[in-house]
Amino acid sequence: MMTAPRDIGNGGAPPDDGASAHARGSFFGRRKGHKLRIHQSDLIDNLLPHLALDIGAPAPARLADLFDSSTDDVRLEIGFGGGEHLIAEAQAYPNIGFIGCEPYVNGMAKILTQIETHNLRNIRLYAGDAAELLAWAPPRSLARIDLIHPDPWPKRRHWKRRFVQDATVKAMARILKDDGEFRFVSDIDDYCAWTLAHLMRSPDFLWTAERAADWQQPWDAYTMTRYGRKAEREGRVAAYLRFRRVS
To answer: Which residues are annotated as catalytic?
Structure first.
């Protein structure tokens, strides 16, 4: 088992687990960028309402009930960006239900276009703060959570805005099934160290790496995102971290 680096997240200061910020449902990123094309706007208006989760209503006892009766498990991808990874996963595993969380409107428009093109029926979407979704979901309802190339918020005064905090780690532990996984990808060394420190001090998670290749190489059938390809072109090396929910 590899040894985690020291917790660089707080620089010796008392830990800020971000609970107060995430409890308010805060969202710190941009919600809209370039103007949507006409068809994209139409998908936002007409397709998204059929796929969007209503967290104002009580959650179902099983998240699998949001999908067809053939759905075996449910996975969540937080901040799916352009949707490349989420779409590929949904195509590869038609018997698994996927929830994509993305507050950025342009990213939502892109994935709706792909859902329509491929006629995918095993994706549901949430256009809001993932912390709110975690609080809404029933216990032990997810088989996996993916966080791929999240915004690293590199300035120290913004570290509380990172998704990985003690509060969100605890929330993920609540909704992951025993032996479920949290998977994290980033090309930012500081955020990787931050994530390792937060997950390894949690009694609910075990880092699965046993050798360097386990975190230096993508897991099997991993779909590289557009951002990941850009990072590679610019010489930045990503880490692929997997954490198992222990009982």
So the answer is: 151
**16 carries a ligand binding annotation:** no
In the chain, the domains with their CATH numbers are: 39-245 (3.40.50.150)
Please name the residues in contact with 145: beta carbons below 8 A apart, sequence gap of 6 or more. 75, 76, 77, 78, 172, 176, 180, 181, 182, 183
Which residues of the chain fall short of a pLDDT of 50? Answer: 1-30
The b/e string for 126-136 (b: 16+ C-beta within 10 A; e otherwise) is: bbbbbbbbbbb
Q: Is 155 annotated as a binding residue?
A: yes
pTM for this prediction: 0.86
Tell me if 190 is assigned to a ligand binding site.
no
